[in-house]
């Protein structure tokens, strides 16, 4: 695991050439996303960032702080409810209308469904709508803009998708006939975490391996346990301090950090060259990370909480061989196809 000092040293080498010029942050208004957005803007270089969130008025003081830290930054807030697929389509329509290319799509919105399975007005599970389905719409609809940003003849920043969720807990033990976890006894925080992580890695791997996306780096990143407001937000009006002890089980050696530290790791993941693409050069002793297929490019990078790359070819390969990957992909596009 790279030390925080080493990550910050790497991030300190960032230049205009190794930063995305146009970035989209879905979930940049709080927690890890906000910390990453702040560090991104505070680099001081000319850039444009789209920030997708629910309440522009509430976020306006932060926007003023960000503008004050970097007067060359163009910050565009897009207000909408990404729990609704129709709203997600509207938000992506706006980006597609405004831009011919983007360099980075950073997705970190989500919450833990402690209150049980809730449904949106569109009939999707609320937690899965936010943490998986809306992200798929952002990714699939904005892929043409990311492809347009790729230039094989330059060593400047190359386009990336960084999906911050829960890689490392993927499983072959899935309810393939009930991926929405609607049936009695199927839904829990743990089953949601396993299903959403697996569905994310399966779908990102498929997209990463499509030839037309070969110039885009796809990353699924587990941030570890970060001291954000996610527990309070997830419990809603049922929150109390004693709820902290009732969180999901986590390995004793999992990385625990502040939002600022998690933001520094995210900056490294999205700008370094360790996980594919052009970026900050590796230091002495560092090695290129490997995709889930044990290659240095051409597939998905799953980056764990210690910034190690996870070789999930056995697990994901089994899902492909037994037809589970195809079921996940087909069900995903059946549910969101109207909005693509």
TrEMBL record:
The keyword Aminoacyl-tRNA synthetase does not apply. Keywords: Oxidoreductase. The keyword Oxidoreductase applies. GO terms for molecular function: oxidoreductase activity. Residues 241-261 are annotated as: Disordered. Transmembrane segments: none annotated. It holds the Pfam family adh_short. This is Short-chain dehydrogenase. It comes from Penicillium cosmopolitanum.
């Amino acid at each position: 695991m790279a030390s925080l000092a080493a990550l910050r040293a790497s991030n300190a080498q960032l230049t205009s050439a190794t930063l995305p010029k146009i970035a989209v942050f879905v979930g940049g208004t709080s927690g890890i996303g906000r910390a990453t957005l702040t560090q991104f803007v505070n680099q001081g270089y000319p850039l444009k960032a789209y920030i997708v969130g629910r309440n522009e008025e509430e976020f306006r003081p932060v926007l003023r702080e960000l503008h004050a830290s970097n007067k060359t930054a163009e910050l565009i807030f897009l207000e909408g409810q990404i729990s609704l697929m129709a709203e997600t389509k509207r938000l992506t329509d706006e980006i597609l209308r405004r831009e011919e290319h983007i360099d980075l799509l950073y997705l970190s919105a989500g919450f833990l469904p402690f209150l049980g399975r809730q449904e949106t007005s569109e009939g999707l599970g609320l937690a899965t709508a936010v943490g998986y389905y809306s992200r798929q719409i952002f990714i699939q609809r904005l892929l043409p803009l990311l492809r347009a940003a790729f230039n094989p003849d330059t060593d400047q920043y190359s386009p990336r998708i960084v999906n911050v969720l829960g890689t490392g807990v993927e499983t072959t033990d899935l309810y393939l006939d009930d991926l929405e976890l609607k049936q009695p006894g199927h839904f829990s925080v743990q089953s949601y975490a396993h299903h959403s992580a697996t569905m994310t890695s399966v779908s990102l791997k498929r997209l990463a391996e499509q030839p037309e996306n070969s110039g885009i780096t796809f990353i699924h990143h587990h941030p570890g346990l970060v001291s954000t407001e996610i527990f309070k937000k997830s419990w809603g009006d049922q929150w109390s301090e004693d709820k902290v002890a009732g969180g999901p089980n986590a390995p004793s050696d999992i990385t625990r950090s502040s939002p600022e530290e998690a933001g520094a790791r995210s900056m490294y993941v999205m700008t370094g060259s360790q996980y594919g693409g052009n970026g900050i050069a590796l230091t002495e002793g560092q090695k290129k990370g490997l995709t889930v297929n044990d290659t240095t490019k051409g597939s998905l990078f799953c980056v764990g909480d210690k910034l190690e790359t996870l070789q999930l070819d056995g697990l994901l390969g089994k899902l492909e061989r037994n037809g589970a990957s195809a079921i996940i992909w087909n069900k995903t596009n059946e549910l969101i196809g109207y909005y693509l």
